[in-house]
Amino acid sequence: MSDPKVLIAGAGIGGLTAALTLHQIGVPCAVLETAPEIRPLGVGINLQPNAVRELYDLGITEAELDEIGVPAKEWALVGLNGNDIYSEARGRLAGYNWAQYSVHRGKLQMLLYRKVVERIGAEAVTVGTRVAGYRKLADDAVSVQVVSLDGAEQARTASMLLGADGIHSAVRAQMHPTQPPIHWGGALLWRGVTWAKPIRTGASFVGLGTHRHRMVFYPISHPDPVTGLSLINWIAEVTVDQSEAKQLSVWFRQVPVEAFLHHFADWTWDWLDIPALIRGGGIAFENPMIDRDPVPTWVDGPVALLGDAAHAMYPTGSNGASQAIVDARVLGAMMCEHGATPAALAAYDARLCGPVSKLILRNRGAGPFGLLNLVDERCGGVFDDIDTVISPAERAGIHG
Question: What is the pLDDT of residues 246-266, one digit of tens each?
Fold first, then answer.
């Protein structure tokens, strides 16, 4: 097969959405993925309404999203006795034209991959192939250095390279060789899934604890018609001494839940049993909550970054995957306006790099979870009426 117009490094959510977008607007493309096979990795994520709208525009249906997740109804912070601190409707219930979906990340990736194979062809994604670097050519083209699993190297020429190769992006490293190392704020996360009965609305995103010691959980499947159980995605988070560099020796590793259960051993109430929820998962994925400092540009002539390669960020706003989808769609829109040219990449960069860079830094703060800290300071997280602890105006100000 001759080299396509655009090469995409990475077959994650951003890279696959970019491939589907380019195919939709008639731009030939191919995806190069480092992993030896495409597998449904990860746990739960949230797709915000703006990303769901873009998936619909790509021809992915509501029924297909319902198969891999559930429309979220509520976002809630609760005290340690189950009383509300703050809650708000989500998705269509909040007045949007599109739902917010809580989905399994791996299932979303596989859905996008199937669409790429159906629409572009199985040859559109090459696995076991790592993009190691690039060289800009005189005619606004790019020579892409590709390394296979056996170490063999080759150069492929394309009009454009899109680096969707994640937080450890080789494309970004070449574009910004003096970038600082990955930033860690001291929080460790353990992510898992457990079959359990959903609480509150049955499709609520719930946070409890404090900013430094908390649980977040939400369903990512509809209830089983027989058992009434949903697959509950949960994230346990603890902030530790940042001098413990050993915590960063292995990232995104699988660990038994006993490795961290002691942090939540007494989080048991008549309305919720956190130890049981964690034990039900059996294993979890441990990783530090990390991001990268913003860079001044995502573009180098015919080369552009998108997704985590461009803007790895804390999950404070649950918008990492959503922004990757939006990146790909904005990039496609700029190509419709400027053609598949460096001018389109420059317009994409001008549209998104600055605003999203501000979002990266804002997500390093407590965000709406700052309310949990304040309530903990004032009453230890236990109260009868939140208005006696923190006024509605003060809550609204912190959340806003």
Answer: 555 456 789 999 999 999 999
Domains of the chain: total = 2
E strand spans, 257-362 = 268-269, 272-273, 283-291, 299-300, 303-305
The tokens describing 151, both together, are 């170490």
Q: Lay out the sheet containing 303-305: strands in order across.
A: 125-126, 29-32, 6-9, 160-163, 303-305, 299-300
Tell me how far apart the alpha carbons of residues 216 and 232 are, in angstroms, rounded to a whole number. Answer: 10
Asked whether the beta carbons of 162 and 332 are under 8 A apart, the reply is no
Structure-block tokens of residue 234: 């949960």
Could you tell me where the DSSP H helices lie in 259-341?
A: 274-281, 308-311, 320-338
Residue 45 CB-half CA count within 13 A = 24
- Determine the number of helices (DSSP H) and then strands (DSSP E) in the chain: 11, 22
Residue at 87 is within a domain: no
Q: What is the mean pLDDT of residues 284-308?
A: 94
CATH number at residue 141: 3.50.50.60
Q: Which domain holds residue 190?
A: 183-291
The residue among 244 and 381 whose pLDDT is bigger is 381
245 found inside a domain: yes
Beta bridge partners of 192: 234
Distance CA 22, CA 5 (A): 10
Pairing of strands 153-158, 142-148: antiparallel
383 within domain boundaries: no
Q: Which helix (H) or strand (E) holds 169?
A: none
